[in-house]
Design a protein that fits this description.
heterodimer, A: 191 residues, Aspartate Aminotransferase, domain 1, 2 domains, 3-stranded antiparallel beta sheet, B: Arc Repressor Mutant, subunit A, 3 strands, 5% strand
Chain lengths: 191, 247
């Protein structure tokens, strides 16, 4: 009887976990707000106190299809309830994948240059300064449009005084160390 | 400056600045001087915070000379930047699709929505225009600004200069306080324009719900403007006019 009871309990627990994992996947994958991702407190409310455990299991399930659960915490905040959880691809995409999902090649280049430039300036730069930097390679109208798009999508953040910083989305999606490392190792153009 | 423009916070010698402030503390006599001293210490704490952030930022990218990164960015091809970025970029995966629940809500909304004709009729019905109002009347009611507005501004500024002739500055609440509530609101309104145009300086009095007004030559700042809402209600005016404290 005992063995049967335990078996039933384990099965029930697994079923509860399975339901929670499905719910977590729905919450994280379906965009509910203007910005993607779900806050820790929302997940706690929907999945219960052990939501981190649920996310851990979900992460291992997503690994099979090349995705992962990622967490981004606001600067100087330790409270996980305030953190944002998202699902990102586990392995980098190729340029073709990005362009087929609506990114133009010159937009990707402008985004890459903007993020790297801001990192090189210790995370803060005047918008005018970034525009001047990008003007070396892109037309003015394109720069204005692109910077606004990057701000809108959360890759850059507009601070007071015309200052731009790295946005929450860039923090989640871009491996800053790797980006700088690769840029520093790239061969410079001749002439 | 350091905080806003992202300048190197280590250019500020915090220890030296604190030492100077410490030396000068004994000579500070007036309340205003002490307030400025507190403000300076507050600014230095912000510089220390900026120094901490600066170091964290450097540590997070395995400190590389920023000038070198910038040089490299200018020299490498667009293709090389894209290739580097694609290796470091793992975009968010999300589905933009309507859920079953949202679809049910949308159908319900549609079923309850009245035809456009009936909804718009209340705006385009047989309403008649209430009549016309003369330009002079609009000016009289203060709905249109004419040259008298600018004369009034000058008058308020002259009045402020006169009050400050002896003391140098005046309390916000005592200056705007008028004989009637309407007059008080109007004076606050006029003063807000003088502040926006840079003819008057406004400083918060710490720990008090009041500000110091000082007339000055017009200053055009390049820094971003800030808004400061100060609410005035009838009760407050009554207290002011009754000679009670505004605290």
């Amino acid at each position: 009887m005992n063995v049967g009871g335990s078996y039933l309990e384990v099965n029930l627990l697994t079923e509860v976990m399975r339901v929670k994992i499905r719910r977590a996947a729905q919450l994280l994958l379906f965009q509910r707000h203007r910005e993607p991702g779900v806050k820790g407190w929302e997940l706690k409310r929907a999945l219960g106190k052990n939501y981190l455990k649920v996310l851990e299991v979900l992460d291992s399930e997503l690994e099979k299809i090349g995705l992962q659960v990622k967490m981004v915490k606001p600067k100087d905040v330790e409270d996980l309830d305030k953190a944002r959880f998202v699902i990102t691809v586990r392995e980098p995409l190729n340029v073709g994948d990005a362009t087929s999902s609506g990114w133009r090649i010159d937009e990707i280049a402008a985004l890459a240059a903007s993020v790297a430039f801001i990192i090189s300036k210790h995370g803060k730069v005047q918008r005018r300064e970034l525009e001047e930097f990008l003007e070396e390679k892109f037309p003015k109208w394109f720069i204005e449009y692109s910077i606004s798009k990057f701000i809108g999508r959360g890759y850059l953040k507009r601070e007071s005084g015309g200052v731009l910083t790295i946005g929450w989305r860039a923090e989640v999606e871009i491996d800053k160390k790797l980006l700088l490392n690769l840029i520093l190792r790239s061969k410079t153009e001749q002439g | 400056m350091v905080e806003e423009r992202g300048l190197n916070p280590f250019n500020v010698e915090v220890r030296e600045e604190l030492k100077t402030l410490d030396e000068q503390l004994g000579d500070l006599k007036s309340y205003e001087e002490l307030c400025l001293d507190v403000e300076a210490v507050n600014m230095l704490t912000k510089v220390v915070k900026a120094q901490k952030d600066w170091l964290s930022e450097e540590a997070s990218v395995f400190y590389t000379d920023p000038a070198f990164i910038e040089h490299k960015l200018r020299k490498i091809s667009t293709k090389a930047i894209v290739e580097a970025f694609m290796k470091a970029w793992k975009p968010i995966a999300c589905v933009e699709e309507i859920s079953k629940e949202e679809l049910v809500k949308a159908i319900d909304y549609w079923n309850r929505l009245k035809p456009l004709k009936s909804r718009w009729s209340k705006f385009t019905g047989d309403r008649k225009l209430g009549g016309y109002i003369e330009l002079e009347e609009l000016k009289k009611q203060g709905l249109i600004i004419d040259e008298t507005f600018y004369k009034d501004l000058e008058r308020v500024l002259d009045e402020l200069k006169e009050v400050c002739k002896t003391k140098g500055s005046v309390s916000y609440w005592s200056f705007i306080s008028g004989k009637s509530f309407e007059e008080t609101v109007k004076r606050a309104y006029m003063l807000s324009f003088l502040l926006t145009y840079g003819y008057v300086e406004l400083k918060k009095i710490p720990l008090k719900d009041d500000y110091i007004l000082t007339p000055r030559e017009r200053v055009e700042t390049k820094a971003p403007s800030e808004s400061l809402p100060i609410s005035i209600d009838y009760e407050r005016w009554r207290k002011l006019s009754g000679g009670e404290s505004s605290d």
